[in-house]
Design a protein that fits this description.
- By secondary structure, the protein is mainly beta.
- About 0% of the residues lie in helices and about 50% in strands.
- It has a four-stranded antiparallel sheet, with no helix packed on it. It has a two-stranded antiparallel sheet with strand order 3-4.
- The radius of gyration is 13 Å and the shape is elongated.
């Protein structure tokens, strides 16, 4: 029987960037699985007025503990 640990995000840096996008995020954590550069990550863009999802793609798999993607 195979068991998988769910992905865990410990930190995202930088913590802020321009609302227009173009910032490369480094997502650190654990259990991001085997190397793949497919897929996307959704992050929440938060301002004093509202929060909404913002795609972060394409995802670059660095290791099982680090992903990078541009907003």
């Amino acid at each position: 029987r195979l068991r998988y640990q769910p992905p865990r995000v410990d930190s995202i840096s930088p913590a802020s960037g321009p609302t227009a996008g173009g910032t490369v995020l480094t997502i650190s954590g654990a259990n991001f699985g085997p190397g793949t550069n497919r897929g996307s990550v959704t992050v929440a863009l938060v301002s004093p007025y509202r929060a909404h999802p913002l795609p972060c793609a394409p995802v670059t798999w660095v290791s099982h503990a680090v992903l990078r993607c541009p907003t």
